[in-house]
Amino acid sequence: MSEVNETCKSNACAIQDCLLRNGYNESKCTKYIDELYLCCKQFYQENGPEASSVCCPKFNLLQLKLKQRSLGQIDAELIEPRRR
After folding, report:
1. By three-state DSSP, how is residue 4 classified?
2. What's the pTM value of the predicted model, to 2 decimals?
3. pLDDT at 1 (0 to 100)
4. What is the residue range of the signal peptide feature (predicted)?
5. pLDDT tens, 11-30?
6. Ranges of each domain in the chain
7. What DSSP designation does 56 have?
8. 67 and 18 Cβ atoms separated by less than 8 Å
9. Among positive and negative, which fits the CA dihedral 42, 3, 60, 55?
10. What b/e sequence results for 24-37 when a residue is b if at least 16 CB atoms lie within 10 Å of its CB, and e otherwise?
11. What percentage of the chain exceeds 70 in pLDDT?
């Protein structure tokens, strides 16, 4: 059985902690998401696009996310439920 690669695990855990502290409002955790994406970008630069870490999006998805962020499409915002 192959070993599971957990590169960038501390970054992924920081996102989960932030989301929990902020009621799962992703827009409050931008700093941690950016840090994960930078860690994953470095991981792929060092190991190639076919590398795999359970903590990183696949290479192509990471490229898309980085492009979206460069265009200002940062994070999802929490929409408050309507009251009836």
Report:
1. coil
2. 0.81
3. 47
4. none
5. 999 999 999 999 999 889 99
6. 9-70
7. S
8. no
9. negative
10. eebebbeebbebbb
11. 85
CA 38 to chain centre: 9
Reported as half-sphere exposure (CB side, CA atoms, 13 A), residue 65 has a value of 18
Give the ranges where the chain is alpha helix by DSSP (H): 9-21, 30-47, 59-70
Model confidence at 69, in pLDDT bands (50, 70, 90)? confident
Tokens of 10: 């501390």
What amino acid is encoded at 82 in this protein? R
Structure tokens at 32: 């941690």
Give the angle 37-11-35 at the CA atoms, nearest 5°.
Answer: 40
Mean pLDDT for the stretch of residues 69-84: 69
